[in-house]
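Good morning N.,

You mentioned wanting to compare the apo and holo forms, so I went ahead and generated the holo version with pyridoxal-5'-phosphate. This is what I fed in:
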Amino acid sequence: MRQVLSGLIDLAARPQQRPQEGPQGQTLNRQLYNELRGAILNGALAPGRRLPSSRELARQLELSRNTVSGVIDQLAMEGYLQVAQGRRPVVAAARPALLRGKPAASGASRAPPLSHWAKRLQKAHWPAVDEGPPRPFQPGLGDAREFPHELWARCLRRAARMAPRRGTQAVNSPPLQAALLKYLVEHRGVRAEARQVIVVPSAQAAIELIARVVLNANDLAWLESPGYSGAAAALEAAGARIVGVPLDASGITIGDRSERPRLIFVTPSHQYPTGRLMPVSRRHELLAFAERAGAIIVEDDYDSEFHYEGRPVAALQGLDESGGVFYVGTFSKSTFADIRLGYVVVPEAYVEIFERAQRHSGQLAALPVQDALAEFIDDGHFAAHIRKMTRLYGERRDRLAHVLKAAAGDFLSVAPPSGGMQLLAYLPRHLDDRDVACRLQHAGITVRSLSHHFTGRIADRGLFLGFAAWNDVEIDTGADMMREALRRLLR
Ligand SMILES: Cc1ncc(COP(=O)(O)O)c(C=O)c1O
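and this is what came out, ligand included:
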């Protein structure tokens, strides 16, 4: 067809043969449309140029008259051609602005218009973008290779088949709300009704949604320092004033602070990134302070599924009597990162506004995937996977701690955590951990600096390493590479 059309364009050639099939299965209609539109956009068919009549074009191209007329009508409707009864179509004088074709030249000078929100987002130091496939010891990852993908596929297939029969307009899948609540009550001491369980695509989405629902611009938000930068980014983007609150051995310090934050973000079961546990006395102190100050608490329980020494302490949410705690969790650690499912248990008074906010912002998780996860939990696959991975991750934690001590124990002080998927290795204060992390990155090892997690004063230096996603060989090889890189660095 292209040949025929270029013939048409230089008015010389005649059709050689009728096209049988368009490129990549395009219909003849679509092919003709694309060729004519392309020729108009690139100027080969200049404005004012008359085309042959649709009858003549159909004859030349050996296409049906209907096909050709349909394409001409379409191009006329979009403004590329002008048609009039009894006259041959003519290429329009001005090309439609929106379809003017080529993308803007590279280096276009105009800065794209951005909202205050987007500008705040541009300045946030999060997320860290790790290019290429993950490599040791990138924190935050579980080992997706160990997940029972076949069982999961069965649940997904069944849920997909059930979809036409669901007949609800629910935002959150009731079976998943019930399954999750049962798990959270049993394992985390959460106290709630199923309707308070809101399912979102990630814990980050939950934090983002809480920020939108609870915060106004310039509201004060407290964050543990060091703490989770993803939360800082979400709260900052919502316009909050972030104050980093230092930690002691029991977690966030309250003391006699007189500020009245509107939101307090904490990771009490396994402080991120230090791994500290907030004891019950500090929990009560925090709850009492929040109630006095009129603050809501966001409890991020991101990796409590994995605990290696006894049972984990129950959630702060279960101690709350005032309805001021949002309990956030994620499946991206306990199953595999790409599952994109997280949740937040909201206080009773927030259920309706959260469902509205979900619909409004589109922070919805696919219902068939939610249903599949409900079945995966109800059939015991989730609990079995957690048991298996707890054993495996516990061994990997011990192995990484051991090989790091052997490889770099002179200057790394390794603190194996009682749970979770990453460990912190403290560095002597005089070493710049950002610089060390950067040099390790060049040497093929991904770690995060502890400094990166502070808001305000940097009180400690260290490296934050994930151990869960790597098998024994990967851990050993990674530790060797680290030893070499650190040796060169400290020489
Ligand atoms: C402390 C903490 N909270 C929340 C999250 C976010 O989890 P998600 O992947 O579900 O957004 C992460 C992710 O690494 C995390 O480390």
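Residues 96 and 163 are 42 Å apart (CA to CA).

Happy to go through it together on a call whenever suits you.

Best,
F.
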